[in-house]
Specification:
7-stranded mixed sheet; 7 strands; Methyltransferase; SAM-dependent_MTases_sf; signal
Length: about 425
């Protein structure tokens, strides 16, 4: 409604002159007609005067209308100007929401944080699993593998195996200097030295704990293979006792002759080299009631490849009991024996004995198994030879055609056991 007001005022100003003229015509018609009896001049004069007044009135009215029209036009213009101004202002007011809309655009920066979140390290932590390969690489030095390295401890028991292979010389860091000197003695029979690679005297005596100040009893030394080492080793500070079977205690002529010859051969050996054997003590014992010396007098008792003979003769139990009696409390029993694949009958003729059987004999006598060693093991020994252990070197009871075969095997596979007499 306010917007149409200027237009109406302009229309009114345009119609005003016409309306004024119509009003003037109406005024002329409405004036009273002259009276009938009046003279013409009078009417003429009146008529002349009336138009003059009417013209003035019309002119005045027209002027007034013109003024009013002018005012109306001015008002219309003012109103139009105001309307135009209002129209111009309204876009500004309409534009005002635009800032309100612009904040909506300003929220677009709010979206930028969203974009900022996208490049944020959040995805990169997802890439962070890439370091996982490194632990895999770290596992390669695994090892728990070092589980490993925990599995490696399982391999350690195999380390002694090199000792099972024939060696021409003992390791330089094994044994005491005096023991190494005894093993390397020039007085030893070259044939005996040649067997060091199978019998490992330095490693074996070190394992048994032999010391130069000890009293050591060797049971049935045979030809004196170990006597050549032990007698000189103990000569200055210790004592070496060679325990041999007393021939007079044997029930058969054959056994008496055999034991008589063995004892004499050993005595001759000792007498031939007083520089090494002049202090050796020979103890003859009854194999059925063995006594190897005063009770609790020895530090170490040694027996090499004899248990199979005692078992077949039914003497094994009393022999181990005799070892126990002669040893000091805390003393050591060292046993080396041909090792069978398992238990064998007491009357077995192969020369092999089950390792568990030897351990049982010692424990029954009161000993405690302290340690086992593979120093004298030989994995090439199949233990199924036609003449038992005597098929192999050094006895070599086999056909000449098979000599190379048995020489390649070498001497028998042997157990090496260390027992302790409780204190």
């Amino acid at each position: 409604m306010e917007r149409n007001r200027p237009a109406r005022l302009l229309l009114l100003a345009a119609l005003l002159p016409g309306l004024t003229a119509i009003a003037h015509a109406q005024d002329t018609k409405s004036e009273p007609a002259p009276a009938t009896g009046e003279p013409a001049p009078t009417s003429a004069t009146t008529t002349d005067a009336a138009p003059s007044n009417a013209a003035d009135a019309a002119a005045a009215a027209a002027q007034t209308a013109a003024n009013e029209a002018a005012q109306a036009a001015e008002a219309a213009r003012a109103s139009a100007t105001a309307a135009a101004a209002a129209t111009e202002t309204k876009p500004t007011e309409v534009a005002a929401p635009t800032p309100a809309t612009q904040p909506a655009e300003a929220t677009a920066p709010a979206a930028q944080p969203t974009e900022a979140v996208a490049p944020a390290p959040a995805p990169k932590p997802v890439e962070a699993p890439a370091p996982k390969p490194k632990p895999v690489e770290a596992a390669a030095p695994v090892a728990a593998t070092q589980p490993a390295e925990a599995t490696k401890p399982a391999a350690k028991p195999a380390e002694p195996k090199p000792a099972t292979k024939p060696a021409t010389k003992p390791a330089g860091d094994v044994g005491s200097p005096s023991l190494r000197a005894a093993v390397a003695g020039s007085w030893r029979d070259p044939k005996n030295v040649a067997r060091d690679g199978y019998r490992h005297p330095l490693e074996t005596l070190t394992f048994f704990g032999a010391k130069p100040e000890q009293t050591i009893i060797e049971i049935t030394p045979g030809g004196g293979w170990y006597s050549e080492i032990l007698a000189p080793f103990l000569r200055e500070r210790g004592k070496y006792v060679a325990a041999v079977v007393d021939p007079d205690t044997q029930s058969s002529d054959g056994a008496r002759k055999y034991q008589t010859k063995a004892k004499a051969t050993l005595e001759q050996k000792f007498a031939a080299s007083p520089a090494q054997y002049d202090k050796v003590a020979i103890a003859a014992y009854d194999s059925f009631k063995p006594a190897f010396g005063p009770a609790d007098s020895a530090d170490l008792v040694l027996t090499f490849r004899n248990v199979h003979n005692w078992r077949s003769a039914g003497q094994a139990e009393v022999m181990f009991r005799g070892f126990y009696d002669v040893l000091k409390p805390g003393g050591t029993l060292g046993v080396v024996e041909h090792r069978a694949k398992g238990d064998v009958p007491a009357d077995d003729k192969t020369g092999y004995v089950g390792q568990a059987q030897v351990i049982a004999l010692a424990e029954a006598a009161g000993f405690r198994l302290e340690a086992k060693s593979e120093i004298n093991a030989n994995p090439r020994d199949t233990k199924d030879h036609p003449n038992g252990v005597w098929t192999l070197p050094p006895v070599n009871q086999h056909d000449a055609a098979d000599d190379a075969k048995y020489q390649a095997i070498g001497e028998s596979d042997r157990m090496t056991l260390r027992f302790r007499k409780p204190r």
